[in-house]
Every structure is written in C-alpha cells, then in structure tokens.
Amino acid sequence: MARLPRTPPAIAGAFIVTLLVVLAIIGPPLWGEQAELINAGAILQGASAEHPLGTDNLGRDLLARVLVAGRFSLGLALLTTLIGAGIGIVLGALPAILPRRAGRVVTSTVNALVAFPGLLLAMFTAVIAGLGAKGAVLGIGVAIAPGFARLTQTLAASVAGADYVAAARMLGVPRRRILTTHVLPNIAEPLILNLTQAMGGALLGLAGMSFLGLGVQPPSFDWGRLLFDGFSRIYVTPEVALGPAVAVAVAGIGFNLLGDALAKAASRTTAPTGKSAGEVPPPAGEPDPEAVLEVSGLSVTFPGGVRPVRELSLTVAPGEIVGLVGESGSGKSLTAAAIGGLVPYPGVVSGARLRLAGQDLGELSEQQRRKLLGTSLAMVFQDPMASLNPALKVGGQLAEVAVVHQGATRAEARERAVDRLGHVHLPEPDKQARRHPHELSGGMRQRAVIAMGLMGTPKLIIADEPTTALDVTVQRQILRLLREVSAETGAATLFISHDIAVVGELCDRVVVMYAGRVVEELPVEQLATGARHPYTRALIASLPDMETDRTQPLASIPGRQPSPAQVPEQGCAFADRCALATSRCAERPSLVSYGKAHSVACWEVDS
Known about the structure:
MetI-like fold, alpha/beta, five-stranded antiparallel β-sheet, eight-stranded mixed β-sheet, 19 helices
C-alpha cells in the first residue's frame, strides 16, 4: 500500500474500498432498525424526500436496506473469495510436487475447468448445494477457483525447478511440506494481490446469483436480492432498482481499480532512494562532474535479506569502455538491471548515489526518470530475441523508439531506423528493416539491437554479455562494432562478461566482482601481469592459451561461489576458495588504492 501509485484510478479504488469497509462497519448499527421497520402506509412507494429510493412491499426504506446490506454482501464476497482461492491454490500447486503422471491429471482438470463457462459452473454447484447464501457462496467460489489454479500453476512452475526444491525432494521431505514451505511462500505475494480483484468478481457473481433467485433468500437480503425484488417495478419506479444496482457496480469497480493499482505498485522497481535495512552505504562524497555514470554504494535486496549486489561503486567516463567481470552469479547482470531500472519485483534497489548523465535518478520523478533512461541509456542484452518482439518487423520496433522518446513522425522514425541499421553494418538495411527478427541471423539480430540503442543519442551503453551466444567470427565483429560506436558517439560503455579474455581485448578498465562486491579494479593493460587479488589471478590463470600443456587438466578455481543468501556479512567471501587465506580474512577487507586507477579488496594483496 505504501507504494500505491498516486494516480486517479488508484486513488478512486482506494477511496471506494475504504468507504465500503466503513459502510459495512457502521451500516447495521445506524440504519438496521430503519431497514426492518414495516410501514403499511408507505408500501411500494417511489422516490420521495422521506424515502430517496422508495420502499418495498412491506413499506421498508430501500436506501436504509441498501446501506445495511453492504456488510452481508461484502462478507459473503470475502468468504467466496477465500473459498475460491483456497481450492484454486491447492489445485494449481499440486502439479509442482506430484509425480509427473498425477501432475498431468491435475493440470488437465484445471484446463477443463478454465474452459468451462464460469456462470454455468456456479449455477450447477449452487443447485447441488441448495438454494440460498450457502449455495451461492460455494457456486461462485468454485467458479473463480480455476482462475486461481491457473495463476498458481504458472507461478509454481517457476519455483518447482529451483535447486532447493530438488534438494528437498532428494532428502525425502514430504510433499505437503515441500508445498507449504518451499513453493507457496515464494509465490504468495502475487496470489494475495489477486485476491483484491477476485473480491470484486465474487461480489458481482453473488449479486448475479441472487438476482437470478439462486442466491440469498428472504428474510435475509444482499444487494443482489434487493435488485431482484425491485426489478419487477423497474418500468414504474426505476429508482427502487437503481440503489442496489449502483452499489454493486461501484463496489465491483472499486475492488478492480484497487487490485490493478496494487498489482502495478508491486511490479514497479524501487528507485535508489537511500539505505535499506541492515545496510550502511559509504559516504557519497562530491559527485564527479565528468562521469557519465556514477554509482556509489549500490545494493539490490530481495525478501529475506538476500543481497545479490552489495554496496557496489563504479564510474564510467565519456568514451570509456569499462568491463565488469566475474563468474555467473556474481551480480553483474543485476547491477546493469539496477542502473536501467529493470530489477524485477520484489527486488529493491538502494544506494548512496546513482547518477546518469549528471542527473541523480533518485531525485527524478517517474516520468523524468523514464525519459532520461529512454534517451540517454542503451542496453544490449545477451539474447537479442528477448529484446525484439518476434511478431513485429525490425524497422517498426526501431522506429517506435524515435516516436515515443523523440516525438518523430512515423516517416522520420522509419528513415532513421534504416539509417541506424546501416550504421551498424547490416547489409541492405532497408530490406532488413522489413523483416521479422526470426528472419535474421543471431549476429544480425544483435546488430539490430545495438542499432535500436543508437536511435537516440545514448550517453551510456550497457552491453550485458552481448557475444555469448555468437560464434567467434561474429563475436569479433560485434566487439569491433561496440568499439566503433563508443569512439564515434563518445558514449560511455559498461561491458558485462564472464569471459575475461574478451574484456581484456575490448575494454579500457576492468572491474572484477565476486559474490556481489567489487574485489578489484584496474587498467586493462595491467590485467595480465598486474592483477593483485587472488580471485582475479585465478580467473586469468584459468584461461588456456597456445602454450598450455594439453596433457594436463585445465586450470580451475576450486569450490564454488556462494549463493547470494549464503554470502557472509563479515569476512572475505572468497576465503574458502583462496590459497592465501589467513585468520585475518575473517574480517571483510575494504577496497583500497593500490596504485594509479588500481584498487584491491584483499588483506594479502602483496603476497
């Protein structure tokens, strides 16, 4: 709720839901007696000063009955939602832990229920359970369960393949415990957010059941029952049906608006706004006016205190290519995502400073930040198919950048897209612009993604392992292209890779990461012979060359990098794998200067 966007739909949804809750609390005590008061002299009246919505067949005030019915209507909707969510979550989570054959049976059942019309399913269940509130609640609950089951199934599938679930299965942990301990807690938040929207659907469904005569029966009444009672008079005194109809519609709209707002708030990445819990960032100091990118004390935190990136600091100057290297899982890609505002929810980005092109991103509004990132930052990812929509032509996707961020016309944007494709040495750029991504080779797609970044005038290019999936010849062409683009445009480049040989060929400066922290930073010309941190040395030693003895096993680093959840808060994270580790390594070393443009975080730096 704290991240709820201050937009008119979000404010309206929150206001309506709050009003409904207040009405449910105060309605029966304030208007309950008036709602039950029988007045033989005021039977079946229309709107009047005394009865704004008219009266029913016993002379009872319909406005009071609408206000009092709010508690019963919302209570039934809440119960219905919980029943539907409970059934759906169990059905959706079972395939993640059941044997394959049993899981397929459950999945097929869910698919069949999703395809079955919800209203018919609700009516069928209600008839079996019996007329009245009980039957309506069970009917609508069963009807909304398949939606929860499909959502849970999708979310659980992303968790079921995790190593910790496989380990739990291997250790013989009971399936019920795997479900309640390992699967459901990791998908709980989106399911809880979906409850708000489901509440609105349940409210409308219950009103529909009562309107059809299958729901709440006299003497009880909810909004749907009041609408049913007044519908026979709608052509004579329409106001008697107007009150419950408006209540149902407004409540449904309110819950849906609030649910949408909560979902959007949950999916937003938190911009760097200062320190997070348990973190004391280093002093920010004075900003570097020459730097295109300046990051200070940047951290990325996930629920449970997991921090894949820990107090990272780096700068990139205009025209400079800085390499960010380390093993997989060291936090390189999350660092790039944090700079570009792309850390997925529920990740939280925090830091003492994050400046791009001289502007502090933490001080900008959402609109200003989006505009700055859209025009000053270009990102090139490892898989170009993840950046290009396979259903759209390449030229149209590039043109969209100029239309959205630069206000260009379609014709101008199209012309610039063709020009940019030619600029990255794509043959026949006009022809390539009319093709879909799958019609291009991997190297051509990567060039197209680079061209997309050049549609504006980027001051910073972030290339996240852009050559990993390419063969050696195309890889060299892409590296040469990045060097040309940086030299021609003067853009700073942050090149991310796990291949230290590629970084040594392309970059001007190298930043080495391990377990989320920077352990060494040095000029590229010192990389081969001047590296001082044991981890950097080990990375270099693991590279074979033409003189490597092929009769011996390839050099490797013993052990494995700790997962983000296992990184020690105190001590050197590399100590368990380091041949130079001493008792002093129980204390975490700071990054200290070791010469011009050279910093190392190691107690045994001179060893």
